[in-house]
Amino acid sequence: MADFILLGSMGAVAGLLAGLFGIGGGIIIVPALIFSFEMDGMGQYATKLAIGTSLASILFMGLSSSFAHYKREAIEWESLFCLAPFIIVGTAIGSQIAGRVDGFLLKRLFGILMLTVAMTMLFRISEKEAPHASEDRVLSVRKWMIYAVGGILIGTISSLFGTGGGTMTVPFLVLLLDKPIRVAIGTASATGVIIAFFGTIGFIYQGWRFLPNMRFGFVAPQTALLIAACGCMTAPLGALIAHRIDTLLLSRVFSVFLIIVSFLLIF
């Protein structure tokens, strides 16, 4: 019963953050699941199982969050369609190399990257008003290159850590493509669904030959569904809050959130 309450509460918090910031919630879900699976005796498979299960739960929470943002016309389809193929490639790469790299080093490097991005975003927003939509509708070669490199990096890192990618997608859209914060959050929610879908498939395939009891590859379906069910109920609330508060405040809150996450990863 205690595990049930803990996982449900974790899902509710992750769903709220998914709607509010466009993230998948893996930053919260993965560490908790690693601890839970290690306590269950999963040993060397605990981390991979936690990441795969996190991605599976994010798939459903992302759909709930994306629909809430879609109803408020906060998804930019051009950015979504341009990023999607490159994110898929990155997700495949991340699924293949997961577990073959030093997880502790990778986590700290990711934390340093997030801290740099967060500080850049915070100071840029402090110097001027929140970013506005760019009027340039022409997809130049330079813009395609930005989408390509950004999409592959977002997909790779997100699938490695079992996150929905919002911690990277939102700053990418705001800082490099000058998108409004609410549009960036809504679009990040949608890209998170793509990451979670292909990432889940990758971890099911990677763990297919191991198949521990009550597991679907490196995915624990019952755990994923419990987290997702609670997260789907709170994701629309997060989206509602994101569209009610001031955009400048939302941008600053998101930056502070990234700083907190980066310190947790580094230390």
If you had to describe this structure to a student in words, what would you say it looks like?
- The chain has 267 residues and is mainly alpha-helical.
- The protein contains 10 helices and no strands.
- It has one domain (2-266).
- Helix 7 runs antiparallel to helix 8.
- The longest helix is centred in the N-terminal third of the chain and has 26 residues, at 46-71.
Key structural traits:
single chain, 267 residues, mainly alpha, 10 helices, globular
Give the topology.
Layout: H1 2-21, H2 26-39, H3 46-71, H4 77-97, H5 103-127, H6 141-161, H7 166-176, H8 181-206, H9 221-244, H10 247-266
Distance between the termini: 31 Å
* Helix amount: over 70%
Q: Number of DSSP helices?
A: 10
Order of helices and strands: HHHHHHHHHH
Number of strands: 0
Coarse shape: globular
Radius of gyration: 17 Å
Structural class: mainly alpha
Mean pLDDT: 85
Query: Strand portion, in percent?
Result: under 5%
| Number of self-contained structural domains | 1
Indicate the low-confidence ranges by residue numbers: 127-131
